[in-house]
Structure formats: structure tokens, C-alpha cells
Specification:
By secondary structure, the chain is of the alpha/beta class. The protein is built from 14 helices and 17 strands. The structure holds 3-phosphoglyceric acid. The site of 3-phosphoglyceric acid (3PG) has 9 residues, from loops. Pathway: Carbohydrate degradation; glycolysis; pyruvate from D-glyceraldehyde 3-phosphate: step 2/5.
Length: about 400
């Protein structure tokens, strides 16, 4: 169900679930991408003379009020971007008085344990309290549609509901990755843990032409090939699964690119001594068995860039190295650059990868699409059922 299903909203108050879960440092927003992404829907509703009560989570405060996770700075940023006052209501979102101005922002939903409760009855009670804030509900937090939480799932059943413009836009792009993507199709995966990516690797192996592996998870791939990885991140228990992927990729004729060189450091620190070594000889660096791999090497980055440039559809999730430390950001930078050169569709999948490209100075419009959902876009590509979409009438293709 889309916004058009509502008819005339003039004079009504609409509850809008956004994903304003932005990165903060010392109370300041370091990437306001998710706030910006929520603007089209809010502007559309305000232009239709509706008023809005915006709800969101921020971080994982474990069901308790915690000033570190207050939405106050986000409400202020939202007001600046909308160029109108956004009234922030501190305190419990369930007990807050209904808003009176055009834009009201409630406090972090996850300060109430019922938001993420496993008990459907508790979630329903919280959704009913939130429903007091409006007469219609717009779900627009794409980044949380994979979560069965009160403000995502139950609230959509309590009030007349529809998907907002952000969700509609995300789906229109991501469906191009799942429904007959233009070939060659490459998927680049990074980030720290292979265990977070098992579902997506499993699902994508038969569908892609190449799969490129970087980030902390690459060391489990190297270990699966029989190489020593020093003190690099390693998920020992995943080695058999990864060996199975290597075998299946071979059988399916999928090009599975595992790094051939890596940047190894003496310690996990921005100014640590470091060297580039062949991926099958990590412990030959001057740091011996104490070396920690923190980035893909230049040969690997060049090979990845070539594979990306040769593709017509590319999806990327997860940094290639510890991009927050400039000495270990080159691999991520090279991959980001290659994505900007794709003739076809390039998609950056949410969370850390979106923050990475912006931190490294790439403008959003250099990519085909930057998804606001990290986990959500991965689960979408896995073909999983997403509760926050199904409740709005959307059905995954078999
Ligand atoms: C995200 O950052 O991926 C979304 O905001 C969801 O957050 P969560 O993983 O804490 O549910």
C-alpha cells in the first residue's frame, strides 16, 4: 500500500516511522544520510496539509532511557533540513501528549522495552499507545523493515497504514537486483563477520557472475584455503562452511575473488606500523604471527576494480578494511571509486558502507543508489520475508 491509498490527508495527523538511527560522535551526527532520506515523505505529507509525528529508534539502548541515545540532536537536524520547527518531546514516547505543531518528534522508541519485546501482546500494547499520536500510519524506515518490532509491525495493523516514498524507492531499486539483474552481476562483500553474510552468500552464489570478498571476513576465507592469518579476525567455526562456498563457486562457474595481498599491521591502531604482504604469507611480515590484517592490498584492490568495472550490475555491502583509520582506507576507497565508474546499476548497501563512502568524500549522486538499510537490504537480497513490508501488503517473489 502506498501513500496514494490514503486519499485526502489535509488536517489529519500522521504517525511516520522513520529510521533515524544515525551515527553520533560526542552527541553530534556524523552522517545525516538517513535524516535526509526521510525528507521526501515528510515533505509530501506536510505539502498535503497533514501534520506529522515522527517516530524512530536510535542505537540499541536495551529498553531503558539513556541520554546517549536521545533523538534530541536528530530532531534538531530534521528541523533544519525541513526548514521548519520540529518539536522534540522528551520522555516516554508512549506517554507523550499528542503533538500540536506541524512536526513533532518523539523520543527513542527503544527506551521502552515493549518496542523490541518478543511478546506480541506487549508489542501490540506499545503500538496502541503510539497510535494515539495520529489517525494514519506511514512506515518509511526501510532500515528496520526486517525487524518484527512494535512500531514496524504491530502499529501498521493498528492504524490505516501505507509505505512511504523512501520504502517505495528502495524497493524499486533493490528489485532490479533480484529480478533479472543485468549481467554481468558482481557482489562485493566486506565487513567484519562472515557469519553475518552466510545467508546472502548462500542465496547469491547461483545468481551472480562474481563474488568479491574483502573486510575482516576475508581472513576466514584465507584460513579456509589453508593459509595462516596471524592475529587477524577469524571465525574458526565457519571454516567448513566457507570451504563449501569455495567448492560450490567452482562448480557453478562463479568467479569468487579472495584477496591475493593484504595490508598487515603490528596492532589495531590508526598509527600502527604496517606492510603489504601476499595473502598466503601473512605471517611472513615483520610482525610474524602477531600481524593483524586491516585492509586488502593494492593488487587485490586493482583486481576488484577491474571486476567491478566489467559488470553491469554491482551490489556492495561492507567496507574492505578499517576505513576509519586513513592508513587502512585505500581498499575501500578503490572499491568505492570503481563503483562510481560502473556503466549500469551500482548499489551501496546501507550502514557501514554508506558511512564509508561519505566519510571518504564520495557524493551520493556518484552511485546508482545508496540504500539506507544495511541488514534490511541484505535480508532483501537473501529473499527473506520482511515483516515490515509484508504487513503493508508487499510479497517477496518466491
Ligand atoms: C540499522 O542500522 O541497520 C537499522 O537502523 C536497524 O538497527 P538494528 O540493527 O539495531 O535493529
Amino acid at each position: 500500500r502506498t501513500l496514494d491509498s490514503f486519499g485526502d490527508l489535509a488536517g489529519t495527523r500522521v504517525v511516520v516511522r522513520c529510521d533515524l538511527n544515525v551515527p553520533l560522535k560526542d552527541g553530534a551526527i556524523t552522517d545525516d544520510g538517513r535524516v535526509r532520506a526521510s525528507l521526501p515523505t515528510l515533505t509530501r505529507l506536510l505539502d498535503a496539509s497533514a501534520s506529522v509525528t515522527v517516530i524512530s529508534h536510535l542505537g540499541r539502548p536495551d529498553g531503558e532511557p539513556n541520554p546517549k541515545y536521545s533523538l534530541a540532536p536528530v530532531a534538531q537536524r530534521l528541523g533544519e533540513l525541513l526548514d521548519r520547527e520540529a518539536t522534540f518531546v522528551p520522555g516516554s514516547p508512549a506517554d507523550a501528549a499528542p503533538g500540536t505543531g506541524a512536526v513533532t518528534v518523539l523520543e527513542n522508541l527503544r527506551f521502552d522495552p515493549r518496542e523490541t519485546s518478543k511478546d506480541a501482546g506487549e508489542r501490540r500494547a506499545f503500538a496502541e499507545a503510539l497510535a494515539q499520536h495520529g489517525s494514519a500510519f506511514v512506515s518509511d524506515g526501510f532500515g528496520v523493515v526486517h525487524r518484527k518490532q512494535a512500531s514496524v509491525f504491530e502499529l501498521a495493523q493498528v492504524l490505516p497504514s501505507a509505505a512511504g516514498l523512501l520504502i517505495a524507492n528502495e524497493l524499486s531499486v533493490l528489485e532490479r537486483l533480484t529480478e533479472r539483474p543485468e549481467k554481468p552481476y558482481a557482489v562485493v562483500l566486506g565487513g567484519s563477520k562472515v557469519s553475518d553474510k552466510l545467508g546472502v552468500i548462500d542465496h547469491l552464489l547461483p545468481r551472480v557472475d562474481s563474488l568479491l570478498i574483502g573486510g575482516g571476513m576475508l581472513f576466514t576465507f584465507l584460513a579456509a584455503q589453508g593459509h595462516a592469518v596471524g592475529k587477524s579476525l577469524l571465525e574458526q567455526d565457519q571454516i567448513p562452511t566457507v570451504q563449501e562456498y569455495l567448492r560450490r563457486a567452482d562448480e557453478l562457474g562463479v568467479t569468487l575473488l579472495v584477496p591475493t595481498d593484504v595490508v598487515v599491521a603490528a596492532a589495531f591502531a590508526p598509527d600502527a606500523d604496517h606492510e603489504t604482504v601476499p595473502a598466503d604469507a601473512i605471517e611472513s611480515s615483520s610482525f610474524g604471527a602477531d600481524g593483524i590484517g586491516l585492509d586488502i592490498g593494492p593488487d587485490t584492490a586493482a583486481a576488484f576494480a577491474t571486476a567491478i568495472a566489467a559488470s553491469r550490475t554491482v551490489f556492495w555491502n561492507g567496507p574492505m578494511g578499517v576505513f576509519e583509520f586513513p592508513a587502512f582506507a585505500d581498499g575501500t576507497k578503490r572499491v568505492a571509486q570503481a563503483l562510481t565508474e560502473v556503466e549500469g546499476l551500482s548499489v551501496v548497501g546501507g550502514g557501514d558502507s554508506a558511512a564509508a563512502v561519505r566519510t571518504l568524500g564520495f557524493a551520493d549522486d556518484r552511485f546508482g543508489h545508496i540504500s539506507t538499510g544495511g541488514g534490511a537490504s541484505l535480508e532483501f537480497l537473501e529473499g527473506k520475508r520482511l515483516p515490515g513490508l509484508e504487513v503493508l501488503g508487499w510479497e517477496a517473489d518466491a
